[in-house]
Specification:
The radius of gyration is 22 Å and the shape is globular. It has 14 helices and 23 strands. The strands form six sheets. The chain has a four-stranded mixed β-sheet with strand order 2-15-17-16. The protein has a four-stranded mixed β-sheet with strand order 4-5-3-14, with helices on one face. Strands 6-7-9-8 form a four-stranded mixed β-sheet. It folds into two domains: 206 residues, Enolpyruvate transferase domain (UDP-n-acetylglucosamine1-carboxyvinyl-transferase, Chain), CATH 3.65.10; 201 residues, UDP-n-acetylglucosamine1-carboxyvinyl-transferase, Chain (Alpha-beta prism). The chain is of the alpha/beta class and 445 residues long.
Length: 445
């Protein structure tokens, strides 16, 4: 549905009770699309995410000569693999603000046996970290040229394949840079061993390694090194299909919802056996006071306590979910300390500064540090501000702000069912969850 420039959030006036289906994982959809392209033959992704980020990945592969067809009604993406070869000799690829697309496509183009490829994104994407990946590819003898600012997009790659060997990488800014090298490493002429210059956030790297295993490539990993040998990707399963899990990060908003609405909610098909590290967010909610249980067809979340407890959490390993908790801190019983998220200052926006600004606008007491923030709740101040008219919060063009603070707005703060919080530019959630507000609204009935 079309969303207005400023969206008032209508509070829930009765406890929630029902099921919800979360769209497929962005991280898995984009990784699986690339691995499918590296297979020889067709692969169908079932339960795939349809969003701006995945559309950019699909279009990037098309620009490189791959057949990628999409059926949004069936949530399926069909990729015709070419055995690891890129038939196109020249392409200009726009990656928007999609970090996964930017890093994965850059590595893929670098692995091509020949061709000239230009990769660029939005002004904000040009600011996001790429230097770790660029430096690592240069160690592999890739001719990659930064066309404006060193270490950033736009880049031009004069491909001649990957030689292999032992290299080092700083992927501390984004584990996607290490994942990108890992996924194209089987195309190299010799094994590639990657040594870490700094510690990397493990969950997404583990996801990449396990996913590669499902497509027939073994990854050898220790704490500090990753080795991948030359090889061929195989189509997964007997029916040439890959089933994409529900998005664990997107699930965090709906797992949190009962704190604001009361009642319980089942997230269909979500499982603790997920490949996604963000599934760990459930442990945070249990500290706050939730009851969360898994059954045969999903995970049920419920909040029975009178008020949630303030907590202290290091979000380094599942940082995409920290905004979900930050947004609801005004309703907790005591201070909440969020740490380990310094790298999120260089994502779609400075997420720590943006969170602090929005929470101050809600009347909260916020102490901002380099790697996080501490929020001391002040519900009374928020009520006073809300009585003056709906509080408008910015999203800074960042989908996670729209969804996190959109969840907060479902709380009936004034007790009259009338909107007290509005979200600017709510349509930015199209980056990963285009129908988020439509799905949220459907739960009122």
């Amino acid at each position: 549905m079309a969303l207005p420039a400023v969206l008032p959030i209508t509070p829930f006036t009765r406890p929630i009770n029902g099921d919800v289906i979360i769209p497929g994982s962005k991280s898995l959809t984009n990784r699986a699309m690339l691995l499918a392209a590296l297979c020889k033959g067709p692969v169908t992704l079932q339960g795939a995410l349809f969003s701006e980020d995945t559309a950019l990945m699909a279009e990037g592969l098309r620009k490189l000569g791959f057949s990628v067809s999409e059926d949004s009604k069936k949530c399926e993406i069909h990729v015709q693999g070419q055995g690891g070869s890129i038939t196109c000799e020249k392409a200009e690829i726009f990656v928007g603000l999609a970090g996964t697309t930017a890093r994965f496509i850059t590595a893929f183009c670098a692995a091509a046996p020949s061709g000239v490829f230009q990769i660029d994104g939005t002004p904000q994407m040009r600011k996001r970290p790429m230097s770790g990946l660029i430096d690592a590819l240069r160690e592999l003898k890739v001719d990659i040229r930064c066309l404006e600012n060193e270490g950033h997009l736009p880049v031009e790659i004069h491909a001649k394949g990957l030689e292999g060997g032992t290299i080092s990488i700083d992927a501390s800014e984004s584990s996607q840079m290490l994942s990108a090298i890992m996924m194209v490493a089987p195309l190299a002429k010799a094994p590639i061993t990657v040594k870490l210059k700094k510690a990397v956030r493990e969950p997404f790297v583990i996801m990449t390694a396990e996913l590669m295993g499902q497509f027939g490539i073994k990854v050898e990993r220790t704490k500090d090194t990753t080795t991948v040998y030359p090889g061929k990707y195989d189509t997964p399963g007997s029916k040439e299909t890959f089933i994409v899990e529900p998005d664990a990060t997107a699930s965090s908003y709906f797992l949190t919802l009962p704190l604001l609405t009361g009642g319980s909610l089942k997230l269909k098909n979500l499982s603790n056996r997920s490949l996604q590290g963000d599934i760990a967010y459930q442990a945070v909610l249990k500290q706050v006071g939730y009851t969360i249980e898994e059954n045969d067809d999903g995970i049920v979340t419920e909040f029975k306590a009178k008020v949630g407890t303030g907590v202290s959490v290091n979000f380094e390993e599942f940082s995409d979910t920290f905004l979900t908790l930050a947004a609801v801190t005004p309703l907790l019983s005591g201070p909440t300390r969020i740490s380990g998220v310094e790298h999120t200052r260089r994502q779609e926006t400075d997420r720590i500064a943006g969170a602090a600004k929005n929470l101050v606008a809600l009347g909260q007491i916020v102490t901002e540090t380099e790697d996080g923030l501490t929020v001391t709740p002040n519900k009374e101040a928020m009520i006073v501000l809300a009585k003056q008219g709906p509080i408008e919060l910015d999203t800074y063009g960042d989908h996670r702000f729209a969804m996190s603070f959109g969840i907060l707005g479902t709380y009936d703060l004034l007790g009259n069912g009338k909107p007290w919080l509005s979200i600017r530019n709510p349509s930015c959630c199209a980056k990963t969850f285009p129908h988020f507000f439509e799905l949220l609204d459907s739960l009122r009935s």
